[in-house]
From TrEMBL:
This is Uncharacterized protein. GO terms for biological process: carbohydrate metabolic process; glycosylceramide catabolic process. It comes from Mola mola. One of its GO terms (molecular function) is beta-galactosidase activity. Belongs to the glycosyl hydrolase 1 family. The keyword Hydrolase applies. One of its GO terms (cellular component) is membrane. The lineage of its organism: Eukaryota, Metazoa, Chordata, Craniata, Vertebrata. It comes from the Eukaryota. The active site is at E372. Keywords: Glycosidase, Hydrolase. The keyword Acyltransferase does not apply.
Amino acid sequence: MFPSDFAWGAATAAYQIEGGWQAGGKGPSIWDTFCHVKGRVFGDHNGDVGCNSYELWEKDLECIRQLGLTHYRLSLSWARLLPDGTTGHVNRKGVQYYNKVIDDLLACSVSPMVTLYHFDLPQALQDQGGWKSPKISAMFDSYAKFCFQTFGDRVKLWITINEPYVCAKLGHEDGIHAPGLKEPGMAAYLVGHNMLRAHAMAWHSYNSAYRAQQKGVVSLALNSDWFEPSRAGCREDVAAAERRLAFTLGWFAWPVFVTGDYPEIMRSAIDAQSKKLGYGGSSRLPSFSKDDPAILGTADFFALNYYTSRKVRPGGGAGQMSMKSDQDAEEVLDPSWPICGVSWLAVVPHGLRNLLKYIKNSFNNPAVYITENGFAQTGPLQIEDVQRSEFYKDAISQVAKAIEEDGVNVRGYFAWSLLDNFEWADGYSVRFGLFNVDFEDANRRRTIYQSGRDYAKIISKQKMKSIQT
């Protein structure tokens, strides 16, 4: 049984749906820049127009209402609000756009969950060093305070940064996300460090200046797969799975929820590997200084993005300076787990329950919002997407078990995504939406999938149950 005030939601991100990349005074973001270089994204796709939600917001609202959502997670485009990244120049048209979105949601009794940063750094700040710069945390804090001041009278659920792990690793180690840097074993740790500092500064700003009046809550959204040993009971595989969890979820959750610092397993592994590679005395994993904001306790709930699971054994990247080499953990797919759409996405709903239990036991039983969970479709369009429909039923059933049988304090579930959209390096070749978007149509026609209809039924049924009890 889900709590009567359970949040039933769907999620989107500004760059993936809005389009209007130069409209209404918006400045360029790193994803605008990244996509305009040939060969970086599947089919040279880009988010210049996307779902055109900047002009078609009312269509999105119709979709939200059709599903019967109680909550909607969206992100703000930093560059649409502050074109050069600073409060020196506020773009009023950007403010008007988000004011309308928030006001329209509330008029329909839908609560907004607002993400401040979902991968799209203003290019003006990237030109000054981006997330590698020691100044970026204070710049983010200034942007966050502007948003709290401007929208916080109506927004009660805030996410500061979405998936710092993905931004750090895919954007600064692997180079397959914006800004496209490949600096293995170095930049990702620095970027992650500055993101944690930025998040903590924004949380403290909210806590001291806005919380008493606005009465909202603030967290950051952490992504993690579930990792389990490749051979059950094998000590080396168990240790490798623990390292993998530490380097993914623990990297950001440990400082915020447990100790105020990185997991010891991560620190010792990076230090040892640095020494082996002749890197010298200093660690590639930065340390928090006494001048940094306190990191511990800077989350009012645990926001989790979960998609898939992996089996793990020791190995990978030996002798290289890389995150893979640091953690000495190699992922393998269980052949019994079906793959959906994209190669990285094995369908493992029970992994979500396992991860929820792990969060409860490792991070002091926090309130949890599942802020993203979804199933990809590729190839020919299937509006009657039976597999995705079954996936959502299975996933939500696992969440129910986590609540009822494991005592996990889950407060909400957000499907990824409301709409088919620009899926980063995969462009429009991968579809995660509850609604299909026809990108060949100038009006970007939205059509509900079977999975959307079935999700709406689940929500309606749960609402009825909560009324009856």
